Amino acid sequence: MERFTQHVGDNMISYLDQGIGDCVVLIHGFCGDHNYWKYIVPHLIKKNRVLTIDLRGHGHSSTPKDTCDITEMADDIAKVLQSLNIQRATLIGHSLGGYISLAFAEKYSDMLSGLALVHSTAYPDSNEAKENRDKGIENIKRSGIVPFVNELIPKLFANENVSELAYHVNEVKKIGYKTSDFGAIGALNAMKNRRDRNDILKNMRIPILLVAGREDNLLPIERVFSTENKMITQVVIENCGHMSMLEQPDILIKAIQDLIHRIEIKR
Q1: Which of these, 15, 182, 242, 250, has the minimum number of CB atoms within 10 Å of its CB?
Q2: What is the CATH number of the domain that holds 148?
Q3: Which part of the chain is the AB hydrolase-1 domain (predicted)?
Q4: Which domain holds residue 101?
């Protein structure tokens, strides 16, 4: 499978480009990479062109020289699309990827056909969450990425799935180890400083999907379903934490396919 790169300013963004059809962009979460979507992509490329992008400081993408914010990470996505002459796309953002997708929607609404927030929220960090981001930054500075990832990853899965899906837990840890220290610190700061974007979510007039895990230890359902409008579909996945693409991939695939179908009907 060929991997492509695109220079965005001083950063090199790595991505996979597969399939033919209307474009769907899959954006992974914090300390992840394109491999998060390995069970999702084969189903989507049957009818769509699918880009799976490694965020700056993650996976095979380069580590930024300076700190960044969520909007700059959205700029990375836009510039990759523009380099490929892709006029419109559907963004599927997991966790951090959802924050980036909302920032993309705010700045590049004319490039957006549809949007999915998968275990993500339009709310900003609470004061407690900001304190935890700062603790994470200090832990990484002190001990590096490996112990940070070892502590983080099991929390991403529903409690009962940590042992049952031990293989996936370990694979996600290995993915996390590839995140550079500075890339993780930059992402933590970007998440901590992001603004409330419920206004963007509420006023969008394109098909939207919000996905929550019933047993998500990090993100309560009510923070995922932060607003309503007639374009929003809400899906709660049972026996699932923060990682439905690995915990319950068939259900997530169906939800994304339904979103794509709604986009086709609207068109």
Answers
A1: 250
A2: 3.40.50.1820
A3: 24-123
A4: 4-266
